[in-house]
Every structure is written in structure tokens, then in C-alpha cells.
Amino acid sequence: MDAFILSHVEHxxxxxxxxxxDRLNSFNDVMHKQLAExxxxxxxxxxxxxxxxxxxxxGFCAGQxxxxxxxxxxxPAPDLGYxxxxxxxxxxxxxxxxxxxxxxxxxxxxxxxGATLALGCDIVIAARSANFVMAFxxxxxxxxxxxxxxxxxxxxxxxxxxxxxxxxxxxxxxAQQWGMIWQVVEDAQLSDTAGQLARHLATQPTYGLGxxxxxxxxxxxxxxxxxxxxxxxYQRMAGRSADYREGxxxxxxxxxPQFSGK
Length: 262
Hints:
Layout: E1 5-10, E2 13-18, H1 29-44, E3 50-55, E4 59-61, H2 80-97, E5 102-106, E6 109-111, H3 113-119, E7 123-127, E8 131-133, H4 147-155, H5 157-166, E9 169-171, H6 172-177, E10 183-185, H7 190-201, H8 206-219, H9 224-239, H10 242-252
């Protein structure tokens, strides 16, 4: 079977490369299943302390492969809700719940579910030539892979609505100016910059980073009172971690901390 997801683990970083470059890394069922298997490893393996997702070839991901039999418009009416429920929704939930940072290095066009997948990662770095396209409306569809929840939150309602309704290209630079992504770098620097950031995060207090991620995600729907209670509970948990003890000890002794991620 073809390896549509290339997985490489080194220095505490799992790098996943979407690998159907001839199809701009668009998703089919097999690719989804291979990605799901890699995420299971990322969830279970404590030595993996950061996840980095990127694409092979000239694009990041063109979303759903329209040649896939489950979306064929020439056959009987397809059930597009099936692929959303079976593949995209679990993917979004697993990346959000993963108690480790997820970096996305967008190396070219990110369209449709490829765009919403990228924007849903914790830290997004894009090559200057990259762009984001909410291509769904051009086909009479709605942004999935978390798109309708995510877009108003990263772009604001006015921009989200226009991006989704118009389906026009958004340059990486514009996405960064609007605060939708973290950083834009020269194309040639993308791999090194993203790799360096991932390796750095893999040496940091992973347990605490996981709590930060969960807290910020929860804040999207919590009231202030609920969020303050959550901060209290998570801070209590963080204070019991080995990394907190190590961090304070290193600070007191003016040395570099050696975090275990626990």
C-alpha cells in the first residue's frame, strides 16, 4: 500500500508529511486511515512531545480528493456527511485534545479542508508563497474540518463570513496580518524554521503545555467564572508536575532546566 502519510520521529518530534503530491495531498479514505494510525502513536508514545504536520511537493493540502468514490457527483447522490463524521470530525477532535503542541508548516496552497486543518493546529507557520482558500462555497458546500467554528474565532465574524462565502485566495502574509497564523517565512526557510520550533517545544514542559492548550481551547466556549475555576484546577495539576519542580529548581540554581515532559 502507498504511504500517503510519511512519519518520522526524532528529537521528541513526530513529523507527519501528507504525501500525495500528484494530487496536491488531497485526502482520500486510505490517507485518512493512515493519518489516524499516526495520531494513535502520537497519543500513546510519551517520547513524542511535539507534532509537526506539513505537505510533500508544491502544496500543503487541497482538501478532499473529488476523485474519491465516496464524493463522486456522477454516481448516486453521495453522503458527504459520512466522510465528515467518519474522518474529518474525529481528526479535528484528536488534534485539539492531543496534550502536546501541534505545529503546521504550510508549504503551499491549503484549500478546503486543507485550509481548515492547517488553521486548526496550535501554531501555524506558512511559506511566503502559501495561500489559504475556503474553496467549499465554489462547490455549494460549507467549510468543514472545523471550519465554521474556527474561522470566526481566528479571523473575526466579518472576515470569516466573506472568506467562506467568496472562497477567494488569502495570501499567507494577509493571514498573518489578520492574526490567523503565527508566522510567515521565506519558502526556503520553512522547513528549518518549523523544525527548530518543534525541537524547541519538544524540550519544554510538555504536561504544562498540554494544560495551556486545553485551557485556551476551553476558553472559546466557557464563561469567565467557569474559566477561572478551570485555571485553578489546571494550576493545581501543573504545580504537582515534575517539570514545575525542575523549573523552579533550575531557576533557583541559575541553570538550564532539563524538562522530562511529565
